[in-house]
Amino acid sequence: MGTPAGAEDALSRYRSPLVSRYAGAEMAFVFSERNKFGTWRRLWLFLAQAEKSLGLPITDEQIQEMEANLDNIDFKMAAEEEKRLRHDVMAHVHTFAHCCPKAAAIIHLGATSCYVGDNTDLIVLRDGLNLLLPQLARVISRLAEFAEKYADLPTLGFTHYQPAQLTTVGKRCCLWIQDLCMDLQNLERARDNLRFRGVKGTTGTQASFLQLFEGDHSKVEELDRLVTEKAGFKRSYMVTGQTYSRKVDIEVLSVLASLGASVHKICTDIRLLANLKEIEEPFEKDQIGSSAMPYKRNPMRSERCCSLARHLMTLIMDPLQTASVQWFERTLDDSANRRVCLAEAFLTADIILSTLQNISEGLVVYPKVIDRRIRQELPFMATENIIMAMVKAGGNRQDCHEKIRVLSQQAAAVVKQEGGDNDFIARVRADPYFSPIHKQLDSLLDPSSFIGRAPQQVAKFLKEEVRPALIPYQSKMGGKIELTL
C-alpha cells in the first residue's frame, strides 16, 4: 500500500514509539535536533571566545553576533544545505554564518567536525545521566517506603519458584532496592568518569591549533582547558583520535543495560506475585485488562517494563561492535549506528524508570492471600520445630520423625491427589501421640517465628545503605508520576 499523495501529516510517517508514546519531555529534548544543533552553536561560541582570549583576531562584535543567534536556527536552510553539501556539520556552519555574516569567517576556526559532533555527544550523555539519576533515586525512595511498611509482614519465600522458608514482603523488596542502589552507584560513576573531547583537531594531534597559535604549545593547551571549562567539564581526554574512544559509549550503555536487567527482574517478580494474587501493580478504575475477558487485571505496566528492558539490554551490543571496528584514528561507520543506539538507550531507560516509579507508588498488598498461602505450606516447614518440642516433652526423636513422616505424606496426598487443603496440623492434633505439645502448636506455627532477622535486616539496610545514597537527591524527589498510556 503506497503513501497517499500529499500526505505530510505526522500520522503518515513512522515515529519511534519511544518518543511518540512513552518517553518524558525532558529526555526527549536532550536528544532532540534543536538541542543538538543549539549545542553545536554554543560550542562554536566557546571556541571563538577562547581563541579571542588567547590573542586571535576575533572581535567583540563577532562574539556578540554569535551570542545573539544561538537559538536562531533555520532548520529548513540547514536541511537544504546538507542535501547540497552531503555534510551535516558544514551545512550548519553555513546556516550559522548566514545569520552571523560578521562572524562567518571565524566560525569553526581550526576545528574538525568531531569538535561539535563528539563534544555534543558527551554533553548529551552527561545531561542524560543527570536526568536518569534522580529518577532512579525516586524509585529507590518509593520502594524503601514500601519495604519499611511491610518489613514485618511474613510471606512465603521461593527458591526455584518452589515454596521455601519464609521471608517478609519488605525484605524481598530490599533485594530489589539493593540491585537499584548498585545501578545508582554505576550511573554516578559513569557520569563522573565522563570527560570532554575538547579541541583536538582532525586526528587528535591539535596540529591546526598549533598552527593558529604559531607553535605556542601552552596556548593550545590553554585553549583546550578553556573550552572544556566553558562546556561544564572538569577534564578532557588527554589523547583522542578524530573521535573520543568509543569505549566511552560502552561504559555508559553497559550501566544502562545493567539497569535494564534490574528492572526486568523486579517487574518479573511483580508479575509472578500478581498471578499469586499477593501483590498487584496499580490498576485504575476504568482500566481494561482484556478485550475478551472483562475480569482480568493484567500487570501491563510491569510487562511494559520487561519488554523495554529487554530492548535496553540488547543495545549494549552496538557500542561493543562499533568500538571493535574503529580503524586507526576513526572510521565513519560508527556515526549512523550511534545516532540510534545512544538515544534509544537513554529514552528507554527514562521510560522504564518513570513506569517503575508509577508502579512503586501504587503497589497493592493482599495480606490475607499471603497468609493463606503461608498456612498451606507452613505445616511442613514446622515439622522440625514439632520434633524438637516433642523431644523436650520427653519423646523419642526417631519415633516422632516416623510419625510425622507418615502424617505428612498423608496430608500431601490430600493436597496433590484430591486438591484439598493441607490438613497436616489437623492430623497432628488428632493423634494422641502428640498430646504433650497440642497446646504449643499455635505458637509453633506462628509465621513470625520463621522469618529470622528479616525485619532487622530491612531496618539496618535502609538506615545504613539506602538513605545515605539518596541524600544528594533529596531536593528532586518530586511528586507521584501519572502515566498517560
UniProtKB/TrEMBL annotation:
GO terms for molecular function: (S)-2-(5-amino-1-(5-phospho-D-ribosyl)imidazole-4-carboxamido) succinate lyase (fumarate-forming) activity; N6-(1,2-dicarboxyethyl)AMP AMP-lyase (fumarate-forming) activity. It holds the Pfam family ADSL_C. Residues 378-462 form the Adenylosuccinate lyase C-terminal domain. Its EC number is 4.3.2.2. One of its GO terms (biological process) is 'de novo' IMP biosynthetic process. It catalyses: (2S)-2-[5-amino-1-(5-phospho-beta-D-ribosyl)imidazole-4-carboxamido]succinate = 5-amino-1-(5-phospho-beta-D-ribosyl)imidazole-4-carboxamide + fumarate; N(6)-(1,2-dicarboxyethyl)-AMP = fumarate + AMP. Homotetramer. Residues from neighboring subunits contribute catalytic and substrate-binding residues to each active site. Belongs to the lyase 1 family. Adenylosuccinate lyase subfamily. This is Adenylosuccinate lyase. It comes from Anser cygnoides. The lineage of its organism: Eukaryota, Metazoa, Chordata, Craniata, Vertebrata. The gene is ADSL.
